[in-house]
Amino acid sequence: MKEAYIATFYSHFGAMAFHKQCKEAGFESRIMPVPRTLSSSCGTCVWFKGDPGQACSWEMEELEQMVKCVNKGGYKKIM
Amino acid sequence: MNDSTTKKETILIIAAGLIIGAIAVGLVFFGNPANMGFCIACFIRDTTGALGFHSAAAVQYIRPEIVGLVLGAFILALVTKEFKPRGGSAPVTRFVIAMFVMIGCLMFLGCPFRMILRLAGGDFNALFGILGFVGGILLGVVFLKKGYTLKRSYSMQKTEGTIFTVLQLVILALLVAAPAFIHFTETDGGPGAKHAAIGISLVAGLVVGALAQRTRLCMVGGIRDVVLFGEWKLLSGFLAILVAAFIGNAILGFWNPGFAGQPIAHTDGLWNALGMALAGFGCVLLGGCPMRQLVLAGEGNTDSAVTVIGLAAGAAIAHNFGLASSAEGPTANGKAAVLVGIVVLLVIAACNSIRKKGAA
Question: Which residue among B70, B141, B195, B352 has the highest number of C-beta atoms inside a 10 angstrom radius?
Fold first, then answer.
């Protein structure tokens, strides 16, 4: 089973662009509000299942951070 | 995302909303103007007047609630290690948008927060405001979907992120010291003369600021999340404020249903709606309502600090140029300014929504 990740961005536009890349790469993904436990920002983020290394290579200027979803709603920062 | 985490967040937001709603009614009980326990736009306007940036004698008073709100968010952000100085995301554009958001709010006579409090007090004119506000947000969401962005922000020095909070402390010192160059509305001279004791207002602001920082409470973000994601979590906080304020008003005898004769309000439905449409549209372009901007400024976001200064400039312009409404209704200048504001924001939104490579 593929592991889930969340990417946060400096703007809603960044999330939209990343979401489009996810779809083109065949990743299961969706845009959603940033979880409070992850950030005090009230922006949007992208939840996805796929290769985080590939996602990091997309040179997204507005990518803020990427975390791996772990048990019980926790997160582990990977970028 | 984990369901139990979402449920906990929702419960926290609703609890915070209930507390904030109760505090807002409590502030009216202790002396603030009716249906104005909290109003970010009105309070920034009053403070701007007290500092001499406009000369509307009826609305001049340094509101400790604003100081407390920023301080509360700042302190909690420090404690939780969420104080992150950032900035550099189109500050001049944000300043201009914020000016028009304030002009829209002063057409309606209240920010999104007061819009809810007015409804909770029985002022049904607020329904037109809500209608316009939602319309403005929907317009903003259209541009968000077209790729609107003011570009990313960047890390800043801690001193840069702290200056705005220090300024709030200076403003508080001016209130306490009350030197001759600070303007205060004379007793019975208007809404500026109605206020709770400094200590009560300051503590109320601190609590609301901390709660808003913890929960990310934002009327604009709440409606945006419902429209974009079908998620009611953020908006449930404002619904809780409405419920708590309504119950508080009913208990204290402040419930006064109707359209005419409402405190610090007018009955022109069209311009109530258009004023809040301008405010809602602008807030989406800014990424948050006026209260959220204060909280973010407390967290060290200098773009939000510039936005708050833009709101203050908008208040000064609104009163110096005769744009602000009164109980008698909107002014011709105010109507023209709201229409100009909608056009200016449309141009700003369009110029920043050019579809870039990679956008959805």
Answer: B70
R_g of chain A, CA atoms, integer Å: 11
Name the residue ranges covered by the structural domains of chain A. Answer: 4-77
**B51 Cβ neighbours under 8 A, 6+ residues apart:** B62, B171, B174, B182, B183
pTM for this predicted structure: 0.95
Q: Say if residue B200's pLDDT is above 80.
A: yes
Which residues in chain A are contacts of B155 at CB distance < 8 A? none
Give the domain range for residue B234.
Answer: 3-351
Q: In what order do the strands lie in the sheet with A28-33?
A: A28-33, A44-49, A4-9, A63-70, A74-77
Count structural domains, chain B.
1
Asked: is A4-77 a CATH 2.120.10 domain? The reply is no
Q: Is residue B359 part of a domain?
A: no
> What value does the mean pLDDT take over residues B99-111?
98
B358 inside domain: no
Q: Which of residues 18 through 37 in chain A touch B, CB cutoff 8 A? A: 19-21, 31-33, 35-37
Q: Which of A13, A33, A41 sits opposite B148 (nearest CB)?
A: A13
